[in-house]
Amino acid sequence: MPRSNxxxxxxxxxxxxxxxxxxQFLGMAGAGVLAxxxxxxxxxxxxxxxxxxxxxxxxxxxxxxxxxxxxPVAAIxxxxxxxxxxxxxxxxxxxxxxxxxxxxxxxxxxxxxVSKLFAALxxxxxxxxxxxxxxxxxxxxxxxxxxxxxxxxxxxxxHLLSHSSGLPGTNSRNLFTxxxxxxxxxxxxxxxxxxxxxxxxxxxxxxxxxxxxxxxxIVLAMTGQSFASFVEANILAPLKMANxxxxxxxxxxxxxxxxxxxGTQYQEFVNAYATGGLSSTPGDMMxxxxxxxxxxxxxGQRVVSAAGIAQMGTDQTTGLLxxxxxxxxxxxxxxxxxxxxxxxxxxxGWEKDGGTAFYSSEFFVVPQAQLAxxxxxNSGYDARKLAETLVLSALKEDGTVASLPAxxxxxxxxxxxxxxxxxxxxxxxxxxSPFQVIANPDGSLQLNQWAGAKRAWTPxxxxxxxxxxxxxxxxxxxxxxxxxxxxxxxxxxxxxxRYLMKRVVPGAGYAYLTLPVGQQLAALTPLxxxxxxxxxxxxxxxxxxxTAVPIVIDGNEPAFxxxxxxxxxxxxxxxxxxxxxxxxxxxxxxxxxxxxxxxxFGRDLYEIRFASASSGTTLTLGSSIYDKI
Length: 629
Prior knowledge:
The chain is of the alpha+beta class. It has 13 helices and 31 strands. Among the domains are: 422-521; 529-628, no CATH class. The protein is 19% helix and 27% strand.
C-alpha cells in the first residue's frame, strides 16, 4: 500500500479504508495494497481426524484467498489447537513469489501486534520475580524517563499494557524497514521527553504502541538484558518456539515469507520489538496457547504464574473515566478479553490481532473450551472473519455451543423521529482525518470527511435517524450516533466531550462494534502571524533510514500545513502517510494535540515543533525531522 507504514487497529473501524500511511499498523490486519502478490499453491498439513468440517471449511476459504483474481494473497499459514492436540496445521501459497517456493508450516511471518502478548508476559514474569509490580509508577524503574506533562510520573506498567498510559501513540521513525535499525526503544523514550501526554494516565484507553515499547526499556533496566534476549530466554525457549525470533539482525537461517512489491522481493524488519516485532509460525503460537490454557504451565514447566495469566485476561477498562464504547474490553496485551463474536455465542474468548506493512494475523484463545487458533499471512485477506468463522465452527462441531449466533443486521431499520442535533454539527477531529457534520433542518445529517489529496471535504453520505437510535444511510452498512462524555478528571477539572460514534459489523458478522471516530472541536482565536505564514508550506522527511519501507516503496511524499475555514484557530498537517491531524498552537514554535478520542481514532497523535537550522527551518513531528521545501 502506498506509504503503508501505519500502525492501526482494527481495519473495520477505518473511516477511509482506502487510505494508508505509517501510523496505522501493528494492531490492524491491513488491507495490503503493498503486497501485490502472485497466487501460489502448495501446503503441508498435520494428519488429524478432528474437526473435519471446520478444517474443510478453512481449507476452502484460505485457498479462495490464495487464488483470488482481484487480490491474490501469496501465503497464509494456520494452526488450531484443542487441549494439547494441534489438530490442524497447514500452510498455503508461496513464501517467495519470484521463485514460487512453497510455504511450509516452518515458514515464519511477521505477526505484528500479536507480539504485544509477549511484552505482557515479560512484565508479568518480572512481577513474578519481584522485580516490578504492575501498579507502581514506572519512574521507579526508569528514573531517566520524563515528559513535559507532570502527570507522566503516575504512569504504571499496567497503563502501558492496557493502552491507558496517555503516551502520544507510535514513534513512526524507522518502524518498518528493509534492514534492521537498532535503538528504536531508546529513540522513543528520548522523544517522549519532548512531548506532553495526550490524556491523564488511566483516564481513557486508546490504542498505544509506544506503551509496549516502553516495556522494552523496563526489561532492560531491571534485568540488564535486551527485551529480545529476555523474551527468547524466558518465553520462547521454555515454550520450544524454535521457529520464532525477533529480527534484530539479518537472519542467517530459517524459512521466511518475503514481501514482494513493485517487482522486488524484500525482507521486512519491525524494529519496535515489544509492540510488533516477533517473527513466528502458527505452530509455535500453539505452544503459547497451550501455556495460556494451562495457566502458565507448558509441558510440566511453569513459565509464568497462573495469577499473571489471569491478570492478562482480566478486563482492564472497568475503571476508565471516559469509555463511550464499553463493549471494547482491553486485557493486558489482549485486544479483547470478551471477544464479541464468541460473546454472542455465550463463550468467553480472548483475541489479539496484528498487522505490519505486509502481513495480517489473528490469535484466538478460548480458555474454557481449551481451543486456540492462529492465522497469519500476507495482507489482503480478512483474518478476523476467517478466525471468527473457524473458531465458532469448531465450538459447534464439538458441541460446546448448540448453534451459531444470529448474524446482526446491516439493513437500515424504519425511520423514526429523532432528537435535535443542531448542537452536534461542526468539525470532529481525530488522528486520521477530520469529519464534518452538517445538521439539516429535517433532522437528517450530512457527513463529510477531509480528503487530503484534494484538500477538500468529500461526502461520506446522508444519514437519517432510525428506530434503533442510530443514523443510517440506505447505501452504507455502518451507522452513526453521538455520545457525550462528561465529568471531572483526576486533576479536578470539569470536562465534556462530544463524540461522533461509528457502528459496524466486522469479521463474520455476529456482533456490532462501535468506536468514537472523532471529537467535536470548538473554534479558537484566529491564528497569529507566525502560524499564518506557515500555511501552504510543504515539508520533506530527512532522518528516516534509507531502508524505511515508505521511503523505498513510495518515495518521500511531502507533508503540508493548512487550515480549515470552518474551524478557526487550528492547523491541519499531514499527507497520505501521516494522515491529517488538527493541531492547537501552544506557542509560535509548537503545536499541540487537540483531541481525546478513545479506542482507535485518537491514537498516534503528535506535537509539532519548529526550529531554525543552518539549512533553514526544521519541523519535528515525534522523532521525525522535516525540512521546509
